[in-house]
TrEMBL record:
It comes from Streptomyces galilaeus. Residues 12-31 are annotated as: Disordered. The keyword Transmembrane helix does not apply. InterPro entries: Flavin_Rdtase-like_dom, NADH-dep_flavin_reductase, Split_barrel_FMN-bd. GO terms for molecular function: oxidoreductase activity. The keyword Oxidoreductase applies. SMART domains: Flavin_Reduct. Keywords: Oxidoreductase. Residues 1-161 form the Flavin reductase like domain. It is an enzyme of class 1 (oxidoreductase). This is Flavin reductase family protein. Its EC number is 1.-.-.-. PANTHER family: FLAVIN REDUCTASE, FMN REDUCTASE (NADH) RUTF.
């Protein structure tokens, strides 16, 4: 599969606040995970799919609350991909600190500034498949923050760009 070139996305979500009934409760932490196992599934309704390692932080988080975001990374965002692919990461709050992002209007998920495209999704279906969970999400919102620039690609274990 390392011979299959793929685009790279950052899947994100915001944890639920500590006390959802208290408007003064601190915001939940941001979480992000680098993924290449992401694809479009259906146009009507608009569905996408991401494959998450079962038991990963992102899988656990999205299992608890169904709202998540996707940022399609550009070739200038390799450092973001590398950062969010590290295992046993420290607090995600620190990882997002110097990354420009907006919060999805519907999902609250961080959406990376300068990404080629961003999506907001709600989980429709979860399918256990071996050691991964296929998460199918309905696209609730789609934006194109940065029309310029090429995609970040992953091929034979390395980040690449076109040309
Ligand atoms: C280029 C690249 C693509 C990846 N794609 C996926 C993916 O599609 N699904 C997945 O579960 N993990 C994928 N990973 C691994 C996760 O990014 C990594 O395991 C995760 O961030 C670690 O989080 P954890 O500590 O919660 O397991 C990928 C890693 C890299 C470097």
């Amino acid at each position: 599969m390392s011979r299959l070139a793929g685009g790279v996305v950052l899947v994100t979500a915001q944890e639920a606040p500590l006390d959802p009934d208290d408007p003064g409760s601190p915001e939940g932490e941001n979480a992000g995970m680098t993924a290449t196992a992401f694809l479009s599934v259906s146009l009507e309704p608009p569905l996408v799919l991401v494959s998450l390692r079962t038991g990963s932080r992102m899988d656990d988080l999205i299992d608890e609350q169904p709202l998540w975001g996707v940022s399609v990374l550009s070739e200038s965002q390799r450092h973001i991909a590398g950062r969010f692919a590290m295992k046993g990461r420290l607090s995600d709050r620190l990882l997002f600190e110097d990354i420009p992002y907006t919060r999805g209007e519907i999902t609250g998920a961080p959406l990376v500034g300068g990404a080629l495209a961003t999506l907001e999704c709600r989980t429709e279906q979860r399918v256990e498949a071996g050691d991964h969970t296929l998460v199918i999400g309905r696209v609730l919102n789609a934006r194109v923050p940065s029309a310029e620039g090429g995609p970040l690609l992953y091929f034979k274990g390395r980040y690449r760009h076109l040309n």
